[in-house]
Specification:
about 180 residues, alpha/beta
């Protein structure tokens, strides 16, 4: 199946989840993540604000802040991402995709200074291949970073596929966390 069709089907499936199912998935995802070495020892963690049916890392972010970790959100900058500090209650504005991101008054950190990046995805396979939204923002951001943080894709379990076609620019994940499992790659 081509990426465009697969992307469409998987996005439709995750959007079909009820609010209650989304909340339960966020709780289960948090539980899967908090016990992992990658989370426990990370001090600088990037998350995202769930959009379009994505599984939400908001409980992970809340717990990270409570534990004294620094939490960052991606900010679209040209065709790449920057990461801006996101304290609880941070003032936000919407980017060109209408996704909230922290306003410029919050400090930015370079991608290679992050310890852990929890990123959204549309589909994944057991080899750690990630199907994103198709814009390539995460791939371009981490392609030129030799000191790459741990990259963990977050997804609903129903977003797993048998295998994904990989392009030479695709950056592989170190792990995938879902509401049912933590899959180290």
């Amino acid at each position: 199946m081509n990426k465009h069709l697969l992307r469409s089907q998987l996005r439709k499936a995750r959007r079909a989840l009820t609010s209650s199912q989304q909340q339960q998935a966020a709780v289960a995802l948090c539980s899967q993540t908090l016990h992992q070495h990658a989370f426990r020892y990370a001090h600088h963690i990037a998350v995202y604000i769930a959009n379009d049916g994505e599984i939400s890392p908001h409980l992970i972010a809340r717990t990270a802040r409570r534990l004294g970790k620094q939490v960052y959100l991606p900010v679209v900058h040209g065709d790449c991402l920057r990461f801006r500090k996101a304290p609880a209650g941070a003032k936000m504005w919407r980017n060109r995709f209408l996704i909230p991101e922290p306003v410029p008054k919050y400090a930015e950190v370079s991608a290679n200074r992050l310890d852990l990046v929890l990123m959204p995805l549309v589909g994944f396979d057991k080899c750690g291949n990630r199907l994103g939204m198709g814009g390539g923002f995460y791939d371009r951001t981490f392609a030129c970073n030799l000191l790459r943080p741990k990259l963990v894709g977050l997804a609903h379990h129903l977003q797993e596929v048998d295998s994904l076609a990989v392009d030479n620019w695709d950056i592989p994940l170190n792990a995938v966390a879902t509401d049912r499992q933590w899959l180290s790659v």
